[in-house]
Amino acid sequence: MADNQKRTIMYLNPVGTPDYDQVFADMARQHKLPGTEVHVTSLKPEDGAFTHIEFRSYETVVSTGIVRATRAAAAEGFDALAIGCFYDTALHDAREVSGEMIVTAPCFASLEIAASLSNRIGIIVGRRKWVHQMHSTVCNNGMADRLSGFYHVELGVNDFQTDHARTELLLTEAGRRAVEEDYAESLILGCTLEIGFNKKLSDTLGVPVIDPSIAALKRAEYGAILKRDGGLLPSRKWSCESPPEDEISQFGIIGDADVFGNRIVVEAE
Which structural domains are found in the chain, ordered by start? Predict the structure, then answer.
C-alpha cells in the first residue's frame, strides 16, 4: 500500500516506561483496519518513569510529555493520536497543539460508543481513588445522566496483571452488580485486563462491554477516516484555539521532537 493511502495512528502510552507497549501493539494488530498503520509509543524515563498514573501528581509529571509527544506526532504527519489512559490525561491540552491531527482518549471514546449502544452505562474501575476524577470526566462529556454508577474492585493498575484469575473474578462480580442491581445496559472497563476479556464478560453478563484501549484506537481510526475521506479537521476557533506558532517557537518548551522513549510499529497491510 502506498504511504499516501494508509491511515497513520499513534497510540501513546503516557508513561516513561515501555512495560505495556507490547500489550497495546498486540491489541492494535488485532483490531485495526488493514489500511491503518499504528505506532505504539511511550515517553522517556525522564518524563515520568511510572508504570501507571493513578495519582494526579503522576499525571502532572507526564502531562508535559504528552503535549510534547502530540506536537511531535503532528509534525510527523499522523492522522490521529490516542492518549492511552482512562483519565484522558491532558486531552484538551494536547488538542491545542495537535494541528490537523485528531486527538482522542479512552474515557471519551468509550462513552461515545457506549451511548450509541445503550441508555444506562456502568463503569468498572480499579480503585475507589479513581472514581472522583473519572466522574468529573463523565460529567464534562455530558454523560452524567446516562451513568448507572462506578463499580470499583480495589485493584491498582499493576495489580490487574498479578493474578488474572482473581482479577477476572472481581471484574465479573462488579459487572454483575452493575447489570443486575443498577440495571446497567452496557459496561466500560476502566482498565484493560487482556485482549478479548471484554467479549468474554459480555457473553457472561449479556450486555456490551467496552475495552477502553480498543475504543480509543478505533475512535482515533474513525477520526482519521473522517479526516482523510470527508475532509473534517479539528476546530481552532474560540475554546479550541491553538497557541500562536511564534510563541511556541519563542518559549521553546514543546517543540522538541525527541520525546519518545520507545516505539513499536504495527504496519498497514
Answer: 7-106+214-266 (3.40.50.1860), 107-211 (3.40.50.12500)
